TrEMBL record, chain A:
One of its GO terms (molecular function) is ATP hydrolysis activity. PROSITE patterns: ABC_TRANSPORTER_1 (PS00211), ABC_TRANSPORTER_2 (PS50893). Pfam families: ABC_tran. Keywords: ATP-binding, Nucleotide-binding, Transport. PANTHER family: ABC TRANSPORTER, ATP-BINDING PROTEIN. Residues 6-234 form the ABC transporter domain. InterPro entries: AAA+_ATPase, ABC_transporter-like_ATP-bd, ABC_transporter-like_CS, P-loop_NTPase. Belongs to the ABC transporter superfamily. This is ABC transporter related. The keyword Nucleotide-binding applies. It comes from the Bacteria.
TrEMBL record, chain B:
PANTHER family: INTEGRAL MEMBRANE PROTEIN-RELATED (PTHR37305), MEMBRANE PROTEIN (PTHR37305:SF1). Keywords: Membrane, Transmembrane, Transmembrane helix. This is ABC-2 type transporter. It comes from Herpetosiphon aurantiacus (strain ATCC 23779 / DSM 785 / 114-95). It comes from the Bacteria. The chain crosses the membrane at residues 21-43, 63-87, 108-141, 161-179, 186-205, 247-271. Pfam families: ABC2_membrane_4 (PF12730).
Length: 320, 279
């Protein structure tokens, strides 16, 4: 990581007096896979479109590799590749012809070997001469990835690249994103699939109603926002709960009549167990409860309702 | 810019709508010649129509029918082409993959205009060659002389195409602007086609409309450039009647140029300022 790939300061876009993006700030280090999260209508696509020069910000400033997104596009265009929302192609042409047209539209006349390399990279070998209208959504998404890489960009914007993909396609896309990251590219990934983001991204920003509400390294965010805790299965439930609630630092809470969640450091766990056992409570299980990006996201955006508070299966490490 | 031009040309000759435009034009030409040959054969050799058909189809007279057909539908073809060329980028949402690749948006529009002109020139050349080929086949069926090289003049042929080209350039420029403003293929095409008809109607009712709208000015340019002697005098009389006064060549030239360059400049300005917020 040698520098900052993308910055945004006070970036704002207002449509008919309604702010789609409001005073957004971003600092994205070069070479990171950066997750850009937010509920529907949070302003993710609007932000990407502004950074790509497709729409003009109402206020604020943004740069890509230090070049202003509005006034220095000729310095930005050669380094940027993007999929914005769904992939768009000329369906009456083949995948290969689409790639050629897009490369030439950007002023490049690439050798056939480069197209072959990209087709191989995205796994479309054998179908590159078929018309795009015969492609499945997953194939179109992969062709979209090939199109973003035509100019060997330093930054790749991927807006919901796994939308509409089946599980196998999602895994393939995840691997492609990881490979882009391994090649040293900065990947700006907007996605609803928080599990996917957690798998591939080192840094994230969470936006809501056009405002950045959290930004930083994934592991730091998960550590600072609550950190690890434990889930205890004990009976009788009411007595166990009453005992644990006598210790306010544990913040004992439960969402069912079965598991009790506590926040505690590992060295405090034996003491807690001792108290329960001394009070004649049977302890069946104690499992480490690790926070996920999904639970963090749902909690801070308040979009999950009751489900946001539920201890999800994947957050219980070492559970049944 | 050259690579962008090549990219646009690939899209153009691959786009089914454009292949359709070419086939429709050729079909109309084919029907004209088949009908002419068929009618002559039906009426028999003794009929005066037989000789007239032979004369009309032999080289170089066979170029005449395609050029008449093109002057009737040429601007419509250009309108459909231009509307589709720009509008389909909106409907397919492909601007979002194209625009981030280049610093200047205006490049895309300039290239689209150049390609429209190139496509229409290709269509005219193919139509003329096809028309003359059909004419030769028709003449061969009817019998008689196939060629009359002495009466062929490339200059005359090219001059006869000037009003066709002017019409299509003016109306495709207006279509460009309307498509850009409405972000819609249909709106551009409908306005381009209906606009031409409305303009023609308006100038037949009002001399002021004739002075403002491009159609009569194109006729004025035609009268100045294509005709001489008595023919020219007759043409001037007709044009002056529509205007209600005599309009000079330079004025007409300025009006037509204003329509072409005004529409293009406004279209480019709109395109550069506009947000591409998707469909």
């Amino acid at each position: 990581m040698s520098g900052i790939a993308i910055t945004a300061e006070g970036l704002t876009k207002v449509y008919k007096k309604i702010p789609a993006v409001n005073n957004l700030s971003l600092h994205i280090p070069e070479g990171t896979i950066y997750g850009f999260l937010g509920p529907n209508g949070a302003g993710k696509t609007t932000t990407i479109r502004m950074l790509l020069g497709l729409i003009r910000p109402t206020a604020g400033k943004a740069t890509i590799f230090g070049h202003d997104i509005l006034h220095a596009r000729k310095h930005i265009a050669p380094y940027v590749g993007a999929i914005v929302e769904s992939p768009a192609f000329y369906t009456y042409m083949s995948g290969l012809e689409n790639l050629r047209v897009l490369a030439r539209s950007g002023g490049q006349d690439l050798p056939q070997a480069r197209y072959d390399e990209l087709i191989e990279f995205v796994g479309l070998r054998g179908r590159e001469k078929d018309k795009v209208k015969t492609y499945s959504l997953g194939m179109k998404q992969r062709l979209g990835v090939a199109a973003t890489l035509l100019n060997d960009p330093k930054i790749v914007f991927l807006d919901e690249p796994t939308n509409g993909l089946d599980p196998a396609g999602t895994v393939e896309m995840r691997n492609l994103i990881l490979r882009m990251g391994q090649e040293g590219r900065t990947v700006f990934l907007s996605s609803h699939l928080l599990y996917e983001v957690e798998q591939v991204c080192s840094d994230v920003a969470i936006i809501q109603k056009g405002v950045t509400i959290k930004q930083g390294r994934v592991r730091d965010l998960l550590a600072t926002e609550g950190g690890p805790g434990y889930a205890i299965e004990a009976a009788p439930f009411e007595r166990a709960m009453a005992i644990l609630q006598e210790l306010p630092q544990l913040k004992a809470h439960s969402f069912d009549q079965h598991w009790i969640n506590i926040n505690a450091e590992p060295q405090d766990v034996p003491n807690v167990m001792r108290k329960l056992v001394q009070a004649d409570v049977d302890v069946f299980q104690v499992v480490v409860r690790q926070r996920s990006l999904e639970s963090l996201f749902l909690e801070i955006t308040g979009t999950g309702g009751a489900s946001a508070q539920q201890p999800l299966a994947e957050v219980v490490v070492g559970g049944r | 810019m050259w690579n962008l031009f090549r990219a646009e040309w690939t899209k153009t000759y691959k786009r089914p709508a454009n292949i359709g435009l070419l086939l429709i034009t050729l079909a109309i030409i084919l029907i004209t010649f088949v009908a002419q040959t068929g009618i002559a054969l039906y009426n028999g050799k003794e009929d005066t129509g037989w000789t007239a058909a032979q004369f009309a189809m032999m080289f170089p007279n066979g170029f005449l029918f395609p050029s008449i057909i093109l002057s009737a539908i040429g601007s419509m073809l250009a309108v459909v082409f231009m509307g589709n060329s720009i509008g389909s980028e909106y409907s397919r949402d492909t601007w979002k993959v194209l625009l981030p690749r280049r610093a200047r948006r205006s490049d895309f529009i300039i290239v689209k205009i150049a390609i429209c002109l190139l496509f229409m020139i290709c269509l005219i050349i193919i139509s003329l060659i096809f028309g003359q080929l059909m004419g030769l086949i028709g003449t061969a069926i009817l019998g008689g002389t196939l060629f009359d090289f002495d009466s062929f003049s490339l200059g005359t042929l090219l001059k006869s195409l000037i009003p066709v080209l002017l019409q299509l350039v003016v109306f495709s420029s207006i279509t460009l602007l309307v498509t850009m403003a409405g972000r819609s293929t249909i709106m551009g095409i409908v306005f381009g086609i209906v606009g031409n008809t409305i303009f023609n109607l308006a100038m037949s009712f009002s001399t002021l409309a004739a002075k403002i709208l491009p159609n009569a000015h194109i006729s004025n340019l035609e009268a100045n450039w294509l005709y001489t002697g008595e023919e020219q005098t007759m043409m001037f009389e007709g044009v002056d009647r529509v205007f209600g006064t005599h309009i000079s060549l330079s004025t007409s030239l300025m009006v037509v140029a204003a329509y072409i360059f005004g529409s293009i400049m406004l279209g480019i300005l709109l395109f550069q300022r506009r947000d591409m917020a998707g469909q």
